[in-house]
Amino acid sequence: MVATGLEILLRKCERFQNRNIGLITNQSSVTPYLQYSWNILRERGVQIKMIFSPEHGLFATEQDQIAVNCQPVPGCEVVSLYGDSPDSLLPDKTLLDNLDLILFDIQDVGSRYYTYINTLALFMEAVSGMDIEIMVLDRPNPLGGTIVEGPLLDPAFRSFVGIFPVPVRHGMTAGELALLYRDIKKLDIHLSIIKMEGWKRSMLFAETGLPWIPPSPNMPTFETAEVYPGMCLFEGINASEGRGTTTPFQLSGAPFVNPYDLAERCREYDLEGVLFRPVWFKPTFHKFCGEVIGGIWLHVTDHSRFRSFATGVAMTAAIHELYAEHLQFLNGVYEFNDTIPAFDLLIGSAGIRRSILNGSDVGTILSSWEHDEAEFFKIKQNFHLYE
Fold first, then answer.
1. Which of 40, 50, 100, 130 sits CB 3.0–4.6 Å from 22 for a disulfide?
2. pLDDT beyond 90 at 84
3. Domain 222-368 has CATH 3.90.1150.140
4. Could you give the strand order of the β-sheet that contains 21-25, starting from the edge strand earlier in sequence?
5. Strands (DSSP E) along 185-302, which ranges?
């Protein structure tokens, strides 16, 4: 079994018993025996003065883009880092006056869009130049650490769903991303990483021996995380990404979709490691709530060959080819940014959306980010903590 950074920290708790500590965390911060970090650390004599909770809340009770009201933890103040304004994404610096160490322990899912690592990045910026240590308790990238996929983020498209200048699937752990971000932004911070033991870059989450705790309401399983880098793109179009079902992101569709036609068109692209099963489904909330709609269920057949981001782009192109009169790219989807199409914020640039609208060859579109992948693959090795 892989030992997480939290487990390694627990072996040397006595070193931290005189520190004034804040903890950025949620319910995914557990031991292998499902003890919450904030409880077991306090049992070991570590003073957790304050808990900072990210989007969705400490126990992932809130849906996406809902301002978080904090769930109480006995004997500890809980502060939300996700509200209804850009300022709510940053810690109030008056809350940091009595803290000298900030621990970060949340399970990431390996995609640039996923906002927990972006909360870490913004916190790092906020404490730059202050006498506060940031310590990341590292956890596995559930998608492994060997494959990168997608274009780099154009800084002009920076948002809360895109802060790190990395491909969509980055192949790094939270600790490695923190090291990269400190270097890129030239941040004046005392950053340390508690490394895992036993994790290899080739490992998918099921190989770690760790329990999967849903880090957010619509990330119930590893299978969800595996398709998320591509199917999250459907948040930016007028199609359901499967929210409101028990299999979000594995399911997708829209009222104007004939599932058999869409599945057949997607098969024509010869995408590897995935099968497209035509389905009808009915979301119970979110887009098309209560409507029976046509769509696709993705079945991953080969983890090493499956490319989620390419699949999401190809499916978007297929919808445009079949239903150009219906497909819409949405604005105003994401918090605090209603001027740039949401699809572009996720992609990190406008080029892919424009290519789809222009009817460009899908194979040409899918090869357009190969240079970015190759360049980043070389860069990221400078920040690897694991072989």
1. 50
2. no
3. yes
4. 77-80, 48-53, 21-25, 101-105, 133-137, 190-194
5. 190-194, 251-254, 274-281, 293-300
Q: Nearest CA to 298 among 270, 278, 319? A: 278
- Per domain, the residue ranges of the chain are 5-212+378-383, 222-368
Q: Which residue has the tokens 């130049």?
A: 129
Q: Contact at 8 Å (CB) between 52 and 79?
A: yes
Residue with tokens 């487990």: 7
Residues forming beta bridges with residue 48, ordered by sequence position: 21
The two tokens of residue 160 are 């809360």
Residues 216-241 have a mean pLDDT of: 98
Average pLDDT (125-154) is 97
The one-letter amino acid at 274: V
Main-chain phi, psi angles of 134, to 5 degrees: -105, 125
Angstrom CA distances, 132 to 90, 175, 190, 351, 373, stand at 15, 17, 7, 40, 34
Q: Which of 25-34, 76-85, 117-126, 317-326 has the lowest mean pLDDT?
A: 76-85
Could you say which architecture CATH assigns to the domain 5-212+378-383?
3-Layer(aba) Sandwich (3.40)
| DSSP annotation of 309 | H
